[in-house]
Amino acid sequence: MADTTASSSGANCMEKLKSYVRTQKGFILAAEILISLIVLICYAASRYGGYSAVAICEMIFAIVFFGIFMMELDKQIQVVNWVWSDLFRAGIGAVLYIITSLICVIGGAGDGARIAGG
């Protein structure tokens, strides 16, 4: 009996994931997670792996916000203004990605993975 409730809650979570990815915000967050993973792989393959910290942080923040919005916890936790916090997260992430991308593209002579990450 306990197995059926555990599998139904897992199926419920999977259904929420599928339905949230179909929304515009869910698709954007999922694409951001995927792009962060690709950038992380490129930075990790380069000689200077320290730049991968930006991709790791941005991917973790995107996963956290994806989980919060997918499970509709933003409607339950009213203390935080989730729209503004998501906007600030995306803005700070974009600025950090632009800065590290410029550094990697300008100074990445001879390191193809670093240039690809940038």
Automatic annotation (TrEMBL):
Source organism superkingdom: Eukaryota
Topology of the protein relative to the lipid bilayer: Multi-pass membrane protein
Residue ranges of every copy of the MARVEL domain listed in the record: 20-118
Record field: transmembrane: 26-46, 52-71, 92-110
InterPro entries: Marvel (IPR008253), MARVEL-CKLF_proteins (IPR050578)
Main location: membrane
One cellular component (GO) term of this entry: membrane
Cell compartment(s), UniProt: Membrane
Keywords, sorted A to Z: Membrane, Transmembrane, Transmembrane helix
Described function: May play a role in cell differentiation in the intestinal epithelium.
Protein name: Proteolipid protein 2
Species name: Lates japonicus
Native organism taxonomy: Eukaryota, Metazoa, Chordata, Craniata, Vertebrata
